[in-house]
Specification:
Layout lengths: L6 H19 L3 H8 L3 H8 L7 H10 L5 H14 L14 H9 L2 E6 L10 H11 L5 H14 L1 H4 L6 E7 L1 H4 L5 H15 L4 E6 L13 E5 L8 E4 L6 E3 L2 H17 L3 H14 L3
Parallel strand pairs: 1-2, 2-3
Antiparallel strand pairs: 1-4, 4-5, 5-6
Organism: Streptomyces lavenduligriseus
Pfam family, one: HTH_31
Protein name: Helix-turn-helix domain-containing protein
Amino acid sequence: MASNVNPTVRRRRLGQELRRLRELKGMTAEEVAERLLVSQSKISRLENGRRSISQRDVRDLCGVYDVEDKRIVDSLMEMARDSRQQGWWHTFGDIPYSVYIGLETDAESLRVYEPQIVTGLLQTRPYAEALVRGALPETSADEIEKRVEVRIRRQERITTERNPLRLWVVLDEAALHRVVGSRLVMREQLEHLIELSELPHVTVQVLPFEVGAHPGINGQYAILEFADAADSSVVYLEGVTSDLYLEKAQDVQKYAVMYEHLRAQSHNVEVSRQFIAEAAKRYAD
């Protein structure tokens, strides 16, 4: 696979274009499904980028939408071909959140609210190992190692010098007190967190207990934004058996407003860094 081809992003862009063509034709997904003798859910999955799109699918859909411009058809066919290639994460086998990894790999910026733990991109290996082992107690050692390796590989987005991910994290104070692994693991994790927070493209704020009820009380979420205007922002909500991706503008805007409230209620960057340092010292006692 060419290093500049991200299959997840290709699927999203292709799905968006196919949706645009359907809407220009004035057809519903149900009508298209009836014409092609497929389920409506398949059309929906093709358009939301959650499913690989074959060149045959593209050909059939272009026929339904009466797309006669060969350049458009060829462009869509190429995107379909790229969307079926594999990203770096596929070398690790079946990863439950592979769609998210594909989006994160291509994102320009990421805003995360994390209520319980240090977010994955800022975790040390010992912390990540203890976290996965505790969260998935019936998982094999090999599977735990695979998940940790993927997490460490993802962190290259913030450690690279070339076009690093712009990361903003609001971390609930609870994450500083929840002992994952051991006191030593926690001390090293918090010291690592402070170190990374000093990178110019990484911002970490702590939301203190004293705030009480707040807009993020319902749980963790992330907002991914992309450099290409053709790629809409995505809100990612992680689940136990399945994940949720919100792309409608009104949904993204609602979560973005919530995030601004969380940032405003959190300690500023310098106070947050001092707050984390004090927590790290307590684990040294």
